[in-house]
Amino acid sequence: MVGVPSLKAARSSIVIGWLMVAGVAIAIAALAVGATLSTTLYGVPIAISFLLAALHASSIPLAIPRPLLAGVISAASVLLFAVVQSGSDAAPWPWAVVTLVTHSVTLVLVGLQARRWIAVASWATASLATIAVALVLPRYVDAPAINIIIAASISGVAVAGGIVWREWREIRAQLIRARSESSEEHEFRVIAEEKTRIARELHDIVAHSMSIINVQASTAVFRHQGVPEPVAREFGEIAEAARGAIAELRGVLGVLREDGSPLALAPQPGLEEIPALVEAASRSGVTIALEGDDSRELPPVGEPAALAAFRVVQEAISNAIRHAPDAAIRVRVSHDPTAMTVEVVNDASEHGIRPVGSGHGITGMRERVAAVSGDIRTGATEAGGFSVVARIPRREAGA
């Protein structure tokens, strides 16, 4: 990514270099032909012919680095040639062919390099000045309007060509930049989504396990009679270490947290693992019950929906254990033909330990349920407890 701008700049320099070489070559040819024809066909003194031809030819290479100056020089040269060549009836007037070609090439380059008004102003000045010369100067040859119209039309096409070429280059450059920015944005989004997935998995798995350890260690001396004082202190230290690990984990989650998350590719738990999850929580001394209905006659649940249901139950149990360790918990998973409903409700707590929460758990549950087009409601119950109710659409397995 770092070397791309340098490569583009090098290519641009090479193109400009070749344009300069081509411009100098065309200028030399225009000088040789223009000076010769001006003297032989129009009878202009050789010195004046050479100076005017050199002046006009110089506008071609100048159009690349100095388009405004080149436009002024070309328009002035056209006017001067019309004046000095007006006394001959042996060649086209007011513009000789070489003058028209030189002016047109200059206008193409000016239209390509500069703003539109510079090229248009140079073209309009040369054309209007030529009309003025044809009207006011005495001459030996008629200057039919058709000659001026043809010359102005050809040079006008040159201006339009340069401007269109420039516009095409700018549009192409914008498309390239937009494509590059889109690619970079996609890379950043992928990274952010992966960070979010990691944060969610850390919270769902590690925080849940640490919460169980904290509650088991904190309540061990109450659940087992006659625990020696040294053992009780060790349980307290274990609980304190678990709480510290949870606090540090929240800091890591704050760094990783971003919106959005792709589905994990590794095998993930589903509805079948919910009973084991409830049993593991009950071993920590929490009163917890699992309820459900028969879903064998219904279409199978897809892996994303099953994973979302499992994570909702896991996080809701973790929250209940952290905030109300002495409260009873009820888990219910019910099914209907279109969706399944996951409900986790805990009773009010009288002696609950309430560590400061970061909100990552509820945020993670909402994200998981939203990812499978479901909805979730969380809030306090009338009895003083807390409930989490998620309705998740059924998906065919593999969908």
UniProtKB/TrEMBL annotation:
**InterPro entries given in the database record:** HATPase_C_sf, HATPase_dom, Sensor_HK_TwoCompSys, Sig_transdc_His_kin_sub3_dim/P
What SUPFAM superfamilies does the record point to? Answer: ATPase domain of HSP90 chaperone/DNA topoisomerase II/histidine kinase
Q: Which reaction does it catalyse?
A: ATP + protein L-histidine = ADP + protein N-phospho-L-histidine
GO: which molecular function terms? Answer: ATP binding; phosphorelay sensor kinase activity; protein dimerization activity
Q: Which organism is it from?
A: Glaciihabitans arcticus
User: Which Pfam families does the entry link to?
Assistant: HATPase_c (PF02518), HisKA_3 (PF07730)
Membrane-crossing residues? 12-33, 39-56, 68-87, 93-110, 117-137, 143-165
Q: What is the protein named?
A: histidine kinase
Keyword list, A-Z: ATP-binding, Kinase, Membrane, Nucleotide-binding, Phosphoprotein, Transferase, Transmembrane, Transmembrane helix, Two-component regulatory system
Cellular component annotations (GO), alphabetically ordered: membrane
